[in-house]
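ARCHIVE CARD
Drawer: 12
Card no.: 0347
Subject: one protein chain, sequence and derived structure
Cross-reference: see card 0346
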Amino acid sequence: MRSRESRPRRNEARNPRGRLVGGLVVLAMCGAVAACGDDGSSSSGGADATEVRLVTYSSFALPEKAAEKFEEETGAKIRVIASDDSGAMLTKALLSAGSPEGDVIFGIDNTLASRAMSEDLLEPYLGPQTDSVEPGVALDGEAGNHLSPIDLGDVCINVDQSWFESKSIAAPTRLADLTDPKYRDLLVVESPVTSSPGLAFLIGTVARYGDGWMDYWQQLEDNGVSVRQSWDDAYSTDYTVSGGDRPLVVSYASSPPAEVVFSEGKRTEPVSTVMTDSCVSQVEYAGVLSGTDRPELARKLVDFMQGPEWQSEIPLTNFVFPVVADTPLPEEFQKWAVRADAPLAVDAETIGEQRDAWIESWRSIME
């Protein structure tokens, strides 16, 4: 879920998937529980059976306590190989399909699942808890035999209410509001070419406006929307809560709790709210990479990611919801994380058939 793009930064407000404590997350991953290369990547050569390599996106934060438990049970450390956002991560993985740089890939979401099936990228395998996940989360068809659901959340517009209050401007509440000239130059989104939340948001506009979605994007373009390559760029650099100049950002419905968690006691409640009218459901999946030389250990990691230790820790490390039903939620999620009642959605088959065409049409407007 999940990239989960990658999907605050995960450990920076999605944590919120951004920069509040991003440096600390990287240091932690490179320290006690994981090893990182100088450039955040690694080749498959030189790895040994005392580690399992997890390919993911750059804003992923390893659940450290769960990782320590995995090492206790298996004797293997989790080595994180992280680069780019989810879309770019998947593109890179497809280029090395059959000769992977890792053992497990995490962060392929429901908008990218059909693309992951286009090459010999994944071995058929499902985690044992897939039957226990929330309804509608497990994939159908071929992808459903290769990708195990791990986390879920809604991609939504986050609104910096404090900014709007300081300017005495009423904040937008609907997607249609974002084309109003009074919100000119206030919105930042991620590119659907490279970012999974960016692609999810694009799909949400298709779901809302149907054949008129391109007209909507032309209106956003005319109204000064900013497009960034990744969630980190948009949330951690441009969003006003992170010190930027755009008070509207495509992020997650579970981003607001991170504002409190990482405020070091300065905030007792979030300043951001979620525009629920804009929410699009996103699920993140993990799969065993074809060609791994440690398939048994890779399957154990997928199993463990659906287990109680991992599932209970991901809300406050990656600021997404656990996918296994009845997993207890931390207080911060119970108070401030949002689940849209009726998120925008397009069926997986249509996404698979039309995704590339939608992206190219979007590029004709925005690039």
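Annotation on reverse: The chain has two domains: 22-152+282-328, 155-281+339-366. The radius of gyration is 19 Å.
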